[in-house]
Amino acid sequence: MQEIVKGANVSLTALSEDAGSVVVSLGWTSATGAGDADVSVLLVDENGKVRSENDFYFYNNPAAADGSVQLLGKTPTENGDEDRIGVDLTAVPQDVARIVVAASQYGGASFGDLDDLRMTVADRSGEPLVGFSIEDAGAETAFIFGELYRRGEEWKFRAVGQGYETGLAGLATDFGITVLEEAEEPGALAETDEPGAVAEAGKAEEATEPAGAAEAVAPEAPPAAASGADAPAEPPATSTPPAAVPAQSRGRAPRTTKKKITLPKVAKKSLAENDSWRTARLFPVPTLKSDREREVRATSVLLSVMAQVPEFGRRLTAAFGAPAGRMQTFTEVSLPHGDTPKRPDGVIRLERAGKLWTALVETKTNGNPLKAEQVQAYMDIAARRGYEAVITLSNDVALEGTAMVDIKIDGRRKHKVGLWHLSWAEVAHQAQMLIRHEGVGNAAHAWLLQELLEYLQHENSGCHGFQNMGPAWVPVRNGIEDETLGLGDARAVEVVESWERLVRQVCLRLGGELGQKALPVQRARRGSDPQARRTAAADQLCADGRLSAELRIEGTSSVIAVTADLRTGKVRTSVDVPAPEGSYPLVIVKRLLRLLAEAPADLHVQSLVAEGNGPRGTLERLRPEPGDLLPKDGAGLTGFRLTLIKGMGASRGNTESGFIRSVDDAVDRFYQGVVARLGSGEARPGRRG
After folding, report:
1. pLDDT tens digits for 104-118?
2. Residue 500 CB: number of other CB atoms within 10 A?
3. Of 198, 298, 440, 578, which sits 20 to 30 A from 285 (CA to CA)?
4. Would the pTM count as exceeding 0.70?
């Protein structure tokens, strides 16, 4: 990858023969784990102005109808967050001269609060081409990271690094977007000189019917007709950001956003005579007995729903650099390979503007590992046939810096094939986000996704996500208990890797329940070696017998600390809550206890002081005597640490008594019983001792 400095430019076609479609990534880290920003993309003409409101892409207008721009969303990295944007340069209209990539802060935060600001551009296969780091960020609340621009028939990248202390409004004004200053709050109509000019506002959830609202239209049985596999995805409804509209669009009638369908949270009352009656399912599972049957059924079920529900299919394939377009999926396809043809579990094919994008799919269920020789064969076939990707799908969770399978890439081949991995937990997460929180185009699609989710969650499907801590778990646990595990033991590194996979899966499940992204927090700086970090964590495990992680719920500043103590057999979940300034300590304590009125009685509450820790006790003991939590000797109260302690499962699997289930249950109980009761904005990050 070529590194360039601010103001420099480079030709993308000179760096790669496969730069017709690129993935742009914006990344940053935060010392507290709470820093964040919203990305935006502007298409501008030769005059440096947007042509219309549809040239501004952000959280509520994430994709272009022609597939040229697609905001792929945030993904957690080893050291922070990364926002990715798919850009199909071959689909960009000819009158667009530049594609400006920017990000903005909110809530009074500035980019100086973030570390390791960076932009990278990768080609269709995921190969990084060029990178640019911003090192002079300060009080700016919006930043242009870089831009893609035309020079004749080629596309080039320029590192811009221009900041705005006036935020998104100042940046938007420079590109022909008129900001309506009279709007007092997001979503309010703004009074303007010209009739019909309104401030269209609100995030994506405002375009989604609230849970329960779709009850009248969500079917109990499949509708008589659903859209076919060949039906193209409807272009997404667009909207401008809060209190801003392009100058060209003023005077138009207000646009309306098409409502989306979600399923009710509470199921309708069953008409069955008794509990022995089972609802008929579109995708039956109980007859599955062998691993081969599970793989064939799971692949066919998933690929068929991807083709029928455009929002779902696009969400799973966009992250792999696939274009937006008409999707068809296939199973049991025979492809020539030496003396014996190969049969990938599935094939995904997308068509846009007469061009095809093809991915081969290799599926594993029931915890079975991927086989390197199978994946290698599909990579070779894809390279020879000009296919774009191979997608592996299993219960395992991918980790940065750790390959799912070891394969060899023939560097002599000009055509590059991307190798991507999906966990079944990620598939279930995306389905749940759509049908429970974000909504889909019609009731039939919502029903299909619900049936898919029922299938994935059935005990016989084999699609349960990460469910085994691996063969190193028991000897490491025993070595910690009898104090025979020494530093440098390779088995400890295996356990740390399994722990990271478990934490990522816990985040997926929790995020799906809440409708918000839950991300693991990494305190290490960007660029640090993942394997070196895991080795350090393994040495720490050998020394103190603990596995630790932190989770952050997007949209809040809550950081949940999770610690599994293998010596005591306990799982500890905690969060720090700051004490508000200007109130008497006893008043602060009583207010906290009122907020926790319905929290578990065994919740431990500890007062925090400027230096050290203050008194602590359980809610059961503190409720009648809140004064027992006040610091002694008049020490200043800075906050509280709330902790739940739960017994840890011993076995390596996902059974009721297993370690994986105990950690998942501990996080769920702590969030639902404690963090959610504090209310939005109550829990704040803090250092943990």
Report:
1. 887 678 888 888 889
2. 23
3. 440
4. no
